Every structure is written in structure tokens, then in C-alpha cells.
């Protein structure tokens, strides 16, 4: 219980892109969707591990929470925010708070009540 309220923790992981190049799914740094462009340009040419943790993980959190990639709506997934019509909730993107968290962003969803 937190502040006298019961809660459930649900862990979900989403990663936007494969973790290494594949024959039919190559990694392209210059890709405007999944590559090292815009705010992620510092990772151009970096090791795959760094790209996964610092580029693809944050993009995955964005998809999971908002159904967008770099602010653009995608058709494959609506995002957890689409549940705000049924539930009072807060969505947040937070930074890791322990050294063993190997990602750039974490998504936090707090569901307060059914509307």
C-alpha cells in the first residue's frame, strides 16, 4: 500500500527496433523514425548497445505511452493514453533513478480510478 491505497505494479518493456542488424531489418542511423537523428544525433555511429538504451528505448516508451513516434501518430498502436477516456490517470516519462537501470527513459502510468 502507498498512502493507504492498494496498487499493482506492471512491468512492460518496449524497444523500437531490433538490437542488431538483420537481413530483412537493417539498422540505419539516418532513418528519421528509428535512427540517430534529431535529439538522438549524438549517437550516430555509436555501438548498438548505446543506441538501444539511449535511442530505441526512449522511442519505445513514447510509442507505449502515447502511440506516437517522434511526436507523429502511428496506426499500429493507440498508446496507453487512449485509456484516459475510461480511467483517471497520470502518464510520465522519468529518468532512471538507480545505476542498474540501463535505459534512458522509463514510462510511469498511474491509474487513479475508473471514470
Descriptive notes:
The chain has about 120 residues and is of the alpha+beta class. The chain has one helix at about 50-65; strands at about 70, 70-75, 85-95, 105-115. Strands 1-2 form a two-stranded antiparallel ribbon. It is globular, with a radius of gyration of 16 Å. It starts with about 45 loop residues before the first helix and ends with a strand. The mean pLDDT is about 85.
Radius of gyration: 16 Å
Query: Which residues form runs of ≥5 with pLDDT under 50?
Result: none
Mean pLDDT: 84
Strand order of the largest sheet: 1-2
Keywords:
alpha+beta; two-stranded antiparallel ribbon
Which helices and strands, and how do they pair?
Layout lengths: L47 H19 L1 E2 L2 E2 L13 E8 L11 E9 L1
Antiparallel strand pairs: 1-2, 3-4
Provide a quick synopsis of the model.
With 115 residues, the protein is an alpha+beta fold. The chain is 17% helix and 18% strand.
Amino acid at each position: 500500500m502507498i498512502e493507504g491505497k492498494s496498487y499493482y505494479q506492471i512491468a512492460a518493456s518496449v524497444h523500437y527496433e531490433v538490437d542488431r542488424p538483420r537481413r530483412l531489418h537493417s539498422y540505419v542511423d539516418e532513418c528519421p523514425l528509428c535512427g540517430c537523428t534529431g535529439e538522438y544525433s549524438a549517437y550516430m555511429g555509436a555501438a548498438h548497445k548505446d543506441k538501444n538504451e539511449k535511442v530505441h528505448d526512449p522511442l519505445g516508451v513514447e510509442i507505449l505511452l502515447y502511440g506516437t513516434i517522434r511526436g507523429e501518430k502511428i496506426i499500429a498502436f493507440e498508446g496507453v493514453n487512449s485509456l484516459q477516456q475510461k480511467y483517471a490517470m497520470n502518464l510520465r516519462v522519468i529518468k532512471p533513478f538507480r545505476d542498474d537501470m540501463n535505459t534512458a527513459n522509463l514510462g510511469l502510468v498511474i491509474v487513479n480510478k475508473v471514470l
